[in-house]
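Bump. Still looking for RagB/SusD family nutrient uptake outer membrane protein C-alpha cells.
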Amino acid sequence: MKSRYKLFSGLLLGLLISTSSCTDQLNVEPTSVITNASFWKTEDDAKGGLNGMYVKLRNEALLNLFIYGEGRSEVMQKSLAGTLDYDRFYLNTISQAGAGPDWIGLYSAVNAANLILKYAPTITFSSESAKNTTIAQAYAMRAYLYFVMVRTWGDLPLRTLPTEGYDPETTFIERSPVADVFKLIKEDIEKALQLFPDNNFTNGRSMWSKPSVNALKADVYLWTGKRLNGGQADFTTALAACDEVGKADVSLLADYASLFKYTNKGSKEILMSVGFRYLEATDNYFNNIYMAVGVLPANAEAISKTIVGVSGGNNVWEPSALVRNQFSVDDQRRAGTFHEVYTTGANGARNYFISVQTKGQGTVEGGVRFFVDDIILYRYADVLLLKAEAKNALGQDPSTEMNLIRQRAYGTKFDAYKFVNGTKEANDAAILKERLLELMLEGKRWWDLVRFGKAFDIVPSLQAQKGKDYLLLFPISSNVLSLEPKIKQNPGY
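Sorry for the wait, here they are.
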C-alpha cells in the first residue's frame, strides 16, 4: 500500500539534487495525487470506500435526518435557550432563504455509494460473498438516501454514476420526476436483496443487511401505496417485506428504555442504526434537547436531579406538551422517551420547568455528557407497526402486531389497553398514534403524518393552511439554487 502512495517533498528533493536547476525542480511532477483509478484496486480499498460512505451517512444523522423526518411535526416546541432558528421547522415557516439543511451532504453520500458500485465489481475480493455484500450495501445506501430526499424535496436529480470530474454537462442535471426516483429506489432495493448472501447482521447492526433492507422496502412500498396510488399491490409487497424481516434474528426487548442506552447498542431489536462512539463522533441531535450545564434549578425535585444527572447540551427545543400529554402514566414509553422536570415552590406547589429526553442521553465521561447514542433508522417495533399498517390497508386485522407493541408498553396493565380491531379508519388512527408513542424522537413522525395524509389535521402550525399541499415538501435552498443552475424551486416557495 505504501509503495502506491509515495510522497516526495520538492524542498527535500531540491536539497538532495544540488546540481538541478530551478527550472528542473519546478518541473518535478507530484506523485502524491490519489485518483479513483489508482485507489480502487484492492479489497481494502473497497472497505475504505465503504467506511467513508457510512461516515457520510453519520454526518447527515447528526441533525439533518431528524429535521427532515420529525422537525416539522407537532413533536417539538421552544425550550429555555432560545430557538436556534429551529422554530421555523415546527412553526412551518421555512422558505428558500431559511430552508434548513440542503441535499448537498446527502448527494455526497450518494456519490460514495456510486463509486463503490462502479469500482467494486472490478476488484478481486477474498470471497464472492464479501464482494456481493459490499456492493449490496452500496445499493441499499443509495436507495435509502434517495428515499430520504424524494420525501423531502420531491423531484430530484438522478445521479447513478460517480461525479469524478468537473464537466458541467454531467455535473449539472435537471430534476427527474418522483415516479422515476422511486423506480430507481425499488430497483436498488431488489439488487441489494439479491446480493446479500444471508439474513445476518454485522456486529453492532450499523451497516445495511438483508433484514434492514427489507424494512426499508416495507417503508418504501407503504409510501408509494398511499402517496403514489400503488394501492393493493404495493401494500401486499410491503406486508411480505415485513414478514421477511421477522425471519431474521430480531425480537422486541422486554425493557423499552434499555433500547436507547449507550451500553446497549446493536441489540436484537435493532435492524439498522448509524453508529456513534465516544471520541469517534461529535454530539448528535439529542444534544439540543437536553439541559445545559447550570440550568437545573436547586429546587428541582429529587427525582429530576437523579434522572437528569450530569447536565449537558443546549435546550433549544423540547418535547411538546401536546405530545407529552398523549402518553398514559401506565405506558413505560413515557419515562423511556422524556422526563418532565418540576420545581417545588415555597408553598409546596409543583411548577413545570422543562422536559428533557431520556431516549438518547448518551454517556458521561470524565464528568461530561456526550450525546453519542446510535441513531436508529429501523428497529423491529417500527416494522411491526409498518406490518399493522399494511395489513389494515389490505383489510386485514392488525391486532397481533398492535398488541405485541402494547404488551411491552403497558406490561401488567396491558389488558386495559388491548387493541381491538375496528374500522379501517379507526385502525389507521390508532396505528398512527401508536407510531407516535413508540417512535417519538427517532425521526419518523413528519413522514408518518405525510404518508397517512394527516399533517394538516394534526400539526398545529398547519391546521389553518389546509390546501397548501406544497408545504408537505421542503423548499430548495438558496445555496443549492446558486450551485446547480438547472435546478428550479419547488412550487409555492
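The longest strand covers residues 350-357.

Edit: fixed formatting.
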